[in-house]
Every structure is written in structure tokens, then in C-alpha cells.
Amino acid sequence: MKNILTSALGLIAIMTGLNAQTTQSSSIDPAPTWGIKFSGFVRNDVYYDSRQVVSARPANQGELLLYPTYISNDMNGKDLNATPSFSMMAITSRLSGTITGPDAFGAKTSGILEAEFFGNANGNENVFRLRHAYAKLDWSKTQLAFGQYWHPLFVTDCFPGVISFNTGMPFQPFSRNPQIRLTQKLSNSLNLILAASSQTEAFVSPGSSTGTALGSCVANQIFQANAVIPNVHAQLQYKTSSFLAGGAVDYKSLKPATSQPSAAGAATIVSTSETVNSLTLDVYTKITTKPVVIKAEYVVGQNLYDHLMIGGYLAYASTSPYNITYKPINVSSAWLEIIGTGKKFIPGIFFGYTKNNGASEGAVASYSRGIATGKNSLDKVIRVAPRVEFVSGKFKLGFELEVTTATYGMAGTNGKVTGSTTDFTNTRGLFYTSYSF
Known about the structure:
It is a single chain. The protein is mainly beta. It has a single domain, classed as Porin, CATH 2.40.160. It is built from 2 helices and 26 strands. The strands form 5 sheets. It has a 16-stranded antiparallel barrel with strand order 1-5-6-7-8-9-10-13-14-17-18-21-22-24-25-26. A hairpin with a 4-residue loop joins β21 and β22. The N and C termini lie far apart (60 Å).
């Protein structure tokens, strides 16, 4: 009996010692928490439009509203586009995964994988589609990122917080792109951002549908791919807890066609190396105070079709020798937003303005959104959108009144509207609910 008791006490002592060692080891070297953490939201939009609208997507329901349509009269002179519409949609519901893992190359690693049910083209709404697939390497002052993410012209620290899923289109550049991005910390408050990107999905530029110059307009990533040069971007950003300011320059090259007619009206074709090159300048700021947050951005850009803004470029034909060349349409855009800082009741108002500034005279074709030579085209678009949101826990609901006026007139061979103009206004009443997880 004594031997049994001695053995039992010895076993308890050994187990106690092992447990103490395990506890001590865990406190010094905890198990890694690498993996993926999911989040997202379930969202439903209910909206009424007083007029038919031009939408980035879906084309038949207008979720990503850009501007109201031009007049379309029937045989009795009644405007068919003055017809109102009503829609309910839940396709913007989203699932996001934040990824963490072990260090690599001496840097902290992380990633984002995000998708939603918006589909990747008109007609396949409700289909799960990729939004972001982005991996990062973070050193003390340098970050390298690879994958699909917001284009640098869409500044994640300063973009419209409107309720409408259009996120301020067509005043705010809006695009997600495959890219390589370098962020270098120059000081505690100043960052330099350099990026090279390509195009994909709905965020693509227009070109000739036939591959031969002067074909009908179609949007496809092939036109940037054939130019070989990626979209390159440089940006300086100054950021503190209460103030943000930045400026960016963005360069893009497209090859709208790989061949052209050998002469005006000729059926035979010859190769062409003509490209259209464009430059965009962007400045923005955000001021955070106790009662309100104020955001603003100003863009002077060319050929911003792929950013879901108005414009694109024009085609020109020379006669001796016969050759097709291209020039970008110039567009200016500005927006201002004021938002309350409450936790449960959040008011806000958005103002947007964009203007068609045209290109050179003598164009024979247009590859553009809303602008066509010798036809009724956009001169400018203006929007005012007041809103209010109510928050309770993970649940949000909100109301927004979005009033957008598009001014149309006859465009000359430079794509610019001259002479008399006519305004068309759409009023969108929007109610939304969002449950986050």
C-alpha cells in the first residue's frame, strides 16, 4: 500500500511539473493565430427613379446610376425616357476575408479576399464575383502589395460615403485593377505611392470592336494590353489623425486597333501602331473635426472611361498619307461631402460636378461615354444628394435623396458641346438596410 501511495504521489508531482512547464512555455511562445477571418454585410436597396437613367450596371435596373438619359420622343412627341422606375436589389451583399500568416522576406504578411453577388457583367447579376484579391508585405517603412484592389485614383481614406452604391460616380474615379503597388513612408505623416496596373472586368477602356480602326465602340481590356505599357501612377499623401491631403498623377496608354483601312473606304487593311495616351491629375483633402468630417476632390483627367466617368477619346483621319490617330477627351470633375460624426444618427450631404472639355477639332469617330461628335452629348452633370443613416449595433438603415441633372447639347467635331443646351433631371429616392457581421 505504501508503495502504491508513493508511486501515485510521484506521478502527480511529474504531471504538475509538466503542466507548469506547458503553462510557462505558452505564456512565452503562444501558438500563432494565422488564418482567415471572415466579415461582410447583408444589404438590400429599395429605390425609385423619376426618369430612365444611364447606369454602369446593371443596365436594366440602374444600381450604379451615372446620369439621366437624353430625350427619346415617340411619334406623338412624348418622351419615352420620362418613364419612372422602381427596383429592389440585394446583390451588393458581400463576404470579405482578412488573411494573416507568418513573416516572409523579413516583412509582416497579410491579405484580403473579397467577393459579392453583383456579377461581372450585365445579365449575370446574383453571380458571386471577385472584388479584391490582394497580398501585402510590410516592412518598417515600406509596403509592397500585389493583386486586385482599388485603383490608386480611388483613395480609400477619402471617397464619397453616399448611401447609393454608385459611390459618387461619375464624379469620383472608380475602378478595381490588378496591380503592383509600392508605398514608401517618407516620414511619420508623408507617404509616396507608386503603382503599375492593368484592366479587368467592367473597368476597361473602349476601342474598335473589329480590331480595325473606326470600327464600332466596344469596351475591353485588350486595348490596354495591346499597348504593352501598364497604367502607371505616382501619388504623395500627407496624413494625420485630423487632416489628409494628397496629389496624384496617372498615365495610361491604349492601342484602339491593330489594323486600319489602307485608304479611305478601302476594304484592304494594313497594320497600325497608333496609340492614345492620357494624363490625369488628382488632388484631394479630408478634414476631421468633432461635429463633422469634410471631404473634397478635384480631378483634371483624360480618357477616364474605365473609371466609370464621362469621356474617352476621339479618332482622326489624315489624308496624305491616310492614317487614323487618336486624342483623349478632357474632363474636369469635383465633389464635396460633409458628414456628421454621430454614432447612431449620421446626416450627410454630397455635391458633385463634372464637365466635358472636349479634344481637338476634326474628329471622325468617338470612343466615349456620353460624348459623340455631331450628336447630342453631355456638356456637364451636377448632383446634390442629402442623406441620413440610423445605426443600432450591427444594423444600419438609411434614406438618401439623389438629384442628378445632365446637360445635353450638340457636340462639334472636337466632342465639346456648343450652342443651346437642355437639362434632364432624375430624382432617386433610396432606402437601404445593412446588417454587418
